[in-house]
Amino acid sequence: MFTNIGLRAVLKSSVGVLRESSALCSAVSVQPGTYSSALLCGQTVSRGSFAVPPPIRHYARVAKKTEIGRESQLSDLPPTMLKMDYAAVPLAQTTDDLVKRLLSLELASHSEKLKLKTEQLIKKVQRDESDRSSVEVQVAILTARIRNYQEHLQQHHKDKANKRRMLMAIDQRKKLLKKLRLFRYDTFESVCEQLGITYTFHPEYYRRVTHRWLTKKEFCIKVFKAVQKQKAEQKLKLKRSAHPTETEEAKETMVQAQ
């Protein structure tokens, strides 16, 4: 019995679907010119009790404007320049074009280009050709590393590890520049000018004074004074326990003097 009821329900639903599809075919087939012109105008076409909605126009999206970042520090390196390991080799200058292309920066990796750029910055500020450990050279190495981190973070702004390394390098360079500024100001100015560094001072500490902050400060001062007083009493007790004979002799002399 239940199977018969299920079959009847399925047959009724299939008959309804067939009727709707036949009505759609008749609406589309009758007067095709009128249907197409009405749809192009954006009007709804009705055929009896059946209505065909106008088509939805999916226009192309506006292209996003790419943000133009600052120019890379490696962009001034010509691609025909030889790598740092082969620049001093005389045989590399006389080879054919294919070998020169393999030894040039055109097919070099990013690390090799960065190494060459670091060497260029070092040559600007080093004291002599053998200088590799002075403060100026360390500042030049850190500058090339910081700019490389900044270019990397422009594309990968969620890279927290490299951001932390960049901030550590910035702090280290600021310490070196501060030391250089205190002892050799002329060298400090020339290094900043050659490397294009803008030295900024730390901002002055400022805190808005509130009633809660003043109350807490007074309480901290009271606690500090109480602790200092307690420490002084403990020191006095330790002195008296360490030299009891001196205190007794002082009392005897006081009695004799009286």
Task: Provide a descriptive summary of the structure in words.
The protein contains nine helices and two strands; from the N terminus they run H-H-E-E-H-H-H-H-H-H-H. The chain has 258 residues and is mainly α. Among the domains are: 2-52; 109-195, Helix Hairpins. The protein has a two-stranded antiparallel ribbon. Strand 1 (45-47) and strand 2 (50-52) form a beta hairpin. Helix 5 (135-155) runs antiparallel to helix 6 (160-183). The relative contact order is 0.04. Mean pLDDT is 77; it is low at 27-36.
Please outline the helices and strands:
Blueprint: H1 2-29, H2 32-41, E1 45-47, E2 50-52, H3 97-103, H4 110-125, H5 135-155, H6 160-183, H7 185-195, H8 211-242, H9 244-257
Antiparallel strand pairs: 1-2
Strand element count: 2
SS field, number of helical segments: 9
- Measured between the Cα atoms of the first and last residue, the distance is 131 Å
Helical percentage: 55-70%
Radius of gyration: 43 Å
Query: In order across it, which strands form the biggest sheet?
Result: 1-2
Order of helices and strands: HHEEHHHHHHH
Mean pLDDT: 77
Low-confidence stretches: 27-36
Query: At the first level of CATH, what is the class of the domain at 109-195?
Result: Mainly Alpha
The CATH superfamily of the domain at 109-195 is S15/NS1, RNA-binding
- Characterize the overall form: flat
**Which structural category fits the helices and strands?**
mainly alpha
How can the largest sheet be summarized?
2 strands, antiparallel
Describe the oligomeric state of these chains in a short phrase. single chain
CATH topology of the domain at 109-195: Helix Hairpins
Strand content: under 5%
CATH architecture field of the domain at 109-195:
Orthogonal Bundle
